[in-house]
Specification:
The protein contains 14 helices and three strands. It has one domain. The chain has a three-stranded antiparallel sheet, with helices on one face. The protein has 373 residues and is mostly helical. Helix 2 packs antiparallel against helix 11, helix 5 runs antiparallel to helix 12 and helix 6 packs antiparallel against helix 7.
Amino acid sequence: MTLAATLSGIETRARGLERSLITATSLLVAIGFVLALAASPVAAARTSIDGVFELAIRHAWAVLLAGVTLCVLSLVSPRMVRRVCVALFLIGLPLLLAVLVFGGEIKGAQRWIHIGGVSLQPSELLKPAVVVLSAWMLSEKTAEPRFPGYSAMALIALPVLGLLFTQPDFGQTALLCTTLVAMLFLAGAPMWWMGLALAIGTAGGGAAYAIYPHVRARFDGFLDPDKGGGQVGKALQTISSGGVFGRGPGEGTLKMSLPDAHADFVYAVAAEEFGLLLSLGLPLLYGWIAWRGLTLTQSASTPFAKLAAGGLISLFVLQAAIHVAVNVGSIPAKGMTLPLVSYGGSSMLGSAITLGLILALLRRETRMEAIHG
């Protein structure tokens, strides 16, 4: 194949990308960078970060890497989507296991591993891989009823869920488990499979409450804020202080008392500094991605593309919903970032992988194959 033909093929694939999803993604990234600038002085004061705007600079580099990753993945074929996720799974699973041996403990959990001076959270690479590989197994079950698709899906997902639980990272465990249950429902799995998944999740939550003191403290604090719901209480105060129009970029004061204002509670910072407009605008952007993406999955080229895209969209939007729910005090604190908005290289990269794969699976030419056969 000549260079001209290759470039022509890339141009054709690029033209087939869903522009509304790209626009929503770009807006989220832009909002995230503004909030990183606003939160950078707070992070510098509370952590060992050197330089008032060092966090914003690091965030910009993460955005650059994520942008390149998203662009490249959005142009691959559905077959290459599977290969990419096999590679991510084979790389991410050993790294997730290594976290338990070599990872440093932060706030009672081991979630990060340091490689060449870079801190990496392997779960962010594994989440989209598990979703896509599970969709692959479920689609094979659809094509060949005798194929053990549900069992194969369990063999892929259970080791990852088990390692996440052991870290412990219950937010990511709950997120991934909920997404997989939704995929089982979309695939028409027997109700007992979904019931089994929910039972395992419920038992895991009960075990976490009994085993881990910090989990028990968070849950008890959520039920009775007077016992220690400090983080969520501060987040609610920060949100309400923004009013309708907000205090202005960088002018928030209550954010100073928030732990991880640049990550786990970035929604509260957005509400304080930009008011009701951004408080409603952010959920609307994620809602648009969910609505438009799930609408496009109806004309996806294959059962695999439909399940994988639907699962990835659910993963992305559910994470945003959990983050917002924690910030407004609807659920106990989970330590969950807001996709594409919160600071964090691993989170940004994981979100870019997820959205890049979604765009690849929902490109116009792949959907036209389904319509015209």
